[in-house]
Amino acid sequence: MSTEQHPDSEQQHDGAGAPDGPRPRRLTQAAAIAAIEGLALVGVGLYMLIIGLMGRPHQPRTAETGGVTMIVLGLIPLLAARGLFLRRRWSRGPALITQILALPVAWMFLTANGPAIPVGIAVAVAAVTGLVLLVNPATAQALGVRGAGGTDAP
Q1: Which end of the chain is more exposed for a tag (fewer CB within 10 A), N or C?
Q2: CB-side exposure of 112: number of CA atoms within 13 Å?
């Protein structure tokens, strides 16, 4: 049933299911983290693609394929970031998955030697911060996410 049929509803929703009103800062921050992660993936993908096309690696086809894959994977958090910024309920899932998948990547960098360790720290901080922001009840409420049993998330 729509919110027009329930005048006692605490929140008014737009046509896409997101509540009206000001966007919580946590939601904007989560969107920013997802966007930065997406841009980083696209950037790495473009670098790999260019290097592959220039023929510098020993296996250019592998670099090209990896570059295209990274670019496509980067689109997921970018779309999730846009959805979070526009307060679309569907965007929380892809954003959460992106943060969860970033944790093993961070671990890989952290267990490497040398200059990869600061990258691992940055990825870990972004992933954990993103997870905290996305599971926050205020974020769920801002996106109109309902809890178990169809109740509003606390």
Answers
A1: N
A2: 14
Task: Look up residue 70 and give its two tokens.
Answer: 């990274």
The predicted-structure confidence for 30-89, as pLDDT tens digits, reads as follows 999 999 999 999 999 999 999 988 877 788 888 899 999 999 999 999 999 999 999 999
What is d(CA 148, CA 17) in angstroms, rounded to the nearest whole number? 17
17-31: pLDDT as tens digits = 556 678 889 999 999
Output b/e per residue, 54-88; b: 16+ Cβ within 10 A: eeeeeeeeebbebbeebbebbebbbbbbebbbebb
Locate 52 and state its tokens: 């592959």
